[in-house]
């Protein structure tokens, strides 16, 4: 198979300020568009290192944003942690899940007087291990409030490592577009939500998996997807886009290796706990199934507006998820050119978020790296981020309102429903422009220079063997290059 244009390795890095009007305008604040030395990575200041340092700087700013709570709002029992929008699960669960008392997750039953009714830790096994390691590293002594502060600091330090991994992986996934990693590093919602919970562990592992897939190491990618799934459920959904893309390209060996690696890694982490502590291990799955409609979801709006608790929300969400996945699969198989892996990955995770029974503020972390790879355009990214920041502020103001008693200081129910709609519409907007890019590949900024799928690994520039509505003879052998020019790369494999 031959290429009608130079390979990625033979071409210079993409100049983001030449492709993106918003990036070009913003660059004037620091002296104008980047120059030759920044683009070629001369000296120590390579793009990947710059992206990583910026991400760590924003992460540190997010820690500073939590200072009012660290200084006392977490422990006062009042609504000030919501008023200052600095809430975090980490210090509360140090006591509430028995870590302060030396209990072992999944194996030790949590007393109701401590947990408020949660008899076992309701997190996947790898996240539970992360929490336990942080507890072991937290110095003892002093009063309980001091230990909770130290536990948050230890977790923040461990999550900072995850931040560095995330930034490096995103910056290196598309070889010619390292500066797209700044979308992750400078995302306002990233700084605000990074230490709300432990999601960054799964997010970093998922980013590493996508990097391994881009480097044509499907087994390593699968292992990392399995580990990420052992930390949070959502990464397993990435196997769906890989399935339909490999179906279209006929790359069954690569998919099988990724699938086997994912299952093997997940099993290695989960089986010991599953066998030795089955009741504690299953708590995450039973809790996810049984929990009622909760914050941030479209189901909460429907429930509040109708007065119906929506006990069947699981079934409704599952139906919408299945229909949405069928639509994404049809898009993958019928688009004029095979969509990029990152595009479908964003769409399927966004679908999961939009249909889920709950949307916690930190769930935006799942989408940020996928958005940077799927739609690296600052205008669209910032529109979506503005919606997410509004939701972040809105949920804390709503909790302040519901927790302030008769004073009702904060955001009332109708206002909270409005910010939920803002979050939903912002996510749908980004989904819409990504679908448009898939249907009109000439609009895709990543493909503007003739690239195909730089994050697709073995899928990159692979001819199609199957596409809906077309025979294998003609399926997907044309590829977009430059400003509306299509070139042939050869015939599909027989």
TrEMBL record:
Highest taxon in the source lineage: Bacteria
Q: Which GO terms describe its cellular component?
A: plasma membrane
- Which molecular-function annotation in GO is an example for this chain? hexosyltransferase activity
Gene source species: Streptomyces daliensis
Q: Name one Pfam family in it.
A: GT87
What is this protein identified as? DUF2029 domain-containing protein
**Similarity comment: family membership:** Belongs to the glycosyltransferase 87 family.
Cite the residue spans of the region called Disordered: 1-20
**Statement: the UniProt record of this protein carries the keyword Amino-acid biosynthesis:** no
Q: Where in the cell is it found?
A: Cell membrane
For membrane topology, the record states: Multi-pass membrane protein
């Amino acid at each position: 198979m031959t290429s009608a244009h130079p390979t990625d390795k033979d071409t210079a890095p993409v100049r983001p300020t030449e492709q993106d009007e918003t990036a070009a305008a913003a660059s004037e604040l620091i002296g104008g568009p980047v120059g030759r030395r920044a683009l070629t990575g001369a000296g120590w200041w390579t793009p990947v290192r710059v992206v990583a340092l910026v991400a760590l700087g924003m992460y540190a700013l997010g820690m500073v944003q939590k200072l009012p709570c660290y200084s006392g709002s977490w422990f006062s029992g009042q609504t000030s942690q919501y008023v200052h929008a600095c809430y975090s699960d980490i210090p509360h669960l140090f006591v509430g899940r028995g870590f302060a008392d030396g209990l072992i997750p999944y194996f030790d039953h949590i007393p109701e007087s401590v947990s408020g009714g949660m008899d076992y830790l309701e997190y996947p096994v790898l996240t539970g291990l992360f929490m336990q390691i942080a507890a072991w590293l937290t110095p003892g002594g002093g009063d309980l409030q001091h230990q909770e502060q130290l536990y948050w600091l230890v977790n923040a330090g461990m999550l900072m490592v995850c931040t560095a991994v995330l930034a490096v992986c995103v910056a290196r996934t598309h070889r010619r577009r390292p500066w797209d990693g700044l979308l992750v590093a400078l995302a306002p919602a990233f700084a605000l939500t990074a230490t709300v919970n432990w999601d960054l562990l799964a997010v970093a592992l998922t980013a590493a998996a996508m990097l391994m897939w881009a480097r044509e190491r499907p087994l390593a990618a699968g292992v990392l997807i399995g580990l990420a799934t052992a930390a949070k459920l959502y990464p397993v959904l990435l196997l769906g886009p890989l399935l339909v893309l490999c179906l279209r390209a006929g790359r069954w060996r690569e998919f099988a290796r990724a699938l086997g690696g994912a299952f093997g890694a997940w099993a290695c982490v989960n089986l010991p706990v599953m066998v030795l502590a089955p009741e504690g291990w299953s708590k995450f799955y039973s809790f996810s199934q049984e929990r009622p409609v909760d914050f941030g979801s479209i189901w909460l709006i429907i429930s509040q507006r109708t007065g119906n608790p929506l006990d069947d929300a699981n079934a409704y969400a599952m139906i919408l998820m299945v229909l949405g996945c069928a639509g994404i699969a049809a898009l993958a198989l019928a688009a004029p050119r095979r969509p990029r892996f990152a595009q479908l990955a964003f769409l399927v995770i966004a679908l999961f978020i939009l249909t889920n029974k709950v949307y916690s503020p930190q769930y935006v972390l799942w989408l940020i790296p996928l958005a940077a790879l799927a739609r690296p355009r600052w205008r669209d990214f910032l529109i979506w981020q503005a919606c997410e920041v509004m939701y972040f502020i809105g949920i804390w103001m709503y909790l302040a309102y519901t927790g302030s008693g008769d004073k009702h200081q904060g955001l009332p129910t109708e206002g909270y429903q409005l910010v939920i709609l803002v979050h939903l519409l912002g996510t749908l907007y980004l989904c819409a422009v990504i679908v448009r890019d898939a249907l009109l590949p000439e609009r895709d900024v990543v493909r503007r220079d003739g690239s195909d799928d730089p994050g697709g690994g073995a899928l990159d520039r692979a001819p199609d063997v199957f596409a809906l509505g077309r025979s294998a003879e003609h399926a997907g052998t044309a590829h977009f290059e430059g400003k509306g020019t299509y070139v042939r790369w050869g015939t599909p494999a027989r």
